[in-house]
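pasting for the record
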Amino acid sequence: MIPAADWLAKRARLSPNRVAIIEAATGRRLSYAEWNARANQAAHALQALGLRKGDLLAVLSPNRLEYLDLLFACNKTGVILQALNVRLAVPELQAMVQDIPPRALIYSGDLAEKAAALEEAVPVMVALDAPIRGAHRRWRELAARASDRPPDPIPLSLEDPWVLCYTGGTTGLPKAAILTYGTITWNAVNTVMSWGLRPDDLAVLNAPLFHTGGLNVFTTPLVHIGGASVLCTAFDPDQVFDLLEREPVTLFFGVPTMFIRLQQHPRWKRADFSRCRIVISGGAPCPMPVFERFFEKGVPFKTGYGLTEAGPNNFWLPDEKTRRKPGSVGSPLFHVEVRVTRDGQEVGPGEPGELWIRGPHVIPGYWNRPEETARTLVGGWLRTGDLAMFDEEGDFYIVGRIKEVIISGGENIYPAEVESVMLGHPDVVEAALIGVPDPEWGEVGRAIVVRRPGSTLTAEELMAYLRARLAGYKVPKSIVFVEELPKTGAGKIDKTALRQQYGR
């Protein structure tokens, strides 16, 4: 008998020979039967380490096949995967494992020094590659000795935790959102039903697996429907273009920074996206020039909206609306409810307010954070902290974060709108808008801009460009040119770091 919760065992029974994973670096292909056997070995290896249902397994590694094995080994054993952000500094990681101590930590060789700094807080240390300490176990040996037969069934309910996925917060200690079997299942159901995923779909997986975008935009929904993922270590524009030429890629998800880098690459002009059914941006507002360049190629490019606490997939815009409504995230998915509120009251079309979300894909809360949970989840609704509005047809637009709105002389300035216009300038590579104190207006905008290499664009020239396209109060009062913008672990522009450095 196959336990109801064992996703890979179910999929391997239903479509054993269908390709599940393609390793981008080698072209190696794994069927669902082969992947399930690897996950069974990983499950037995975790049990040999003494891990049982409810124990926390921290993973500190970039994307690799073993990471996916461990995700579904946890599914088979009830062990909870604690996904650590590999881009964090040692003090940040130390604070996280001290706050939520894992029973074991599995790390990759390129992160061995960071892992060594965490060993005092972790009883069991395991290396995916050569261990940094003699006392650390070798994962390859553990897995090689383990049986590829199914482990004994573990009773699991939809309420049981599967993954602790840290929010993208950049102030204080990140919160660990509890992704249960129910929330991951319902996100998969919503995505397959509402986005129309198919068994013959192939997605590029280069978003980090420590982030909900890597785990749940396409990866887990594709297991549900029997599709496949091309596993990449990280985002690399050349590799993306190679994959588009070499593999029948039909699905591609990225954050705006990734799409901007693709469009600035010399290979962009000849890149062929014609086999891609879905090309979708998420994680942050996407600048309008990105849409326009995809439209020029005939690609119905669209933006989605998600967050670690809900899904992350929540909306869908049909292809026939993409050119008419660029920037709209569309309408809620099949089992998703939303409302837009201001001062506790729902608002009408065209009025911005806070987006609230309800549905079985919403997390039950944060690990050991009852106060944060109570503030965020109210009466069954998730208060997102994001500003949204909807039009007369019921299609939604994400305006920005409530905390990022700049109030200047009583007027609201939404950074995403100004950033989109700035990125329309041919000499602007990246741009962010933050608020800075002003004695006359209370607060004004300051733009932090990365110029195209070799550009001599001046602040005065960029302001003139913006004044021709925006209301005067929206035009930033100062512009700072930098070599690059700081990014969060999810690849989004780190507005908190920008405010700390340039917000005075």
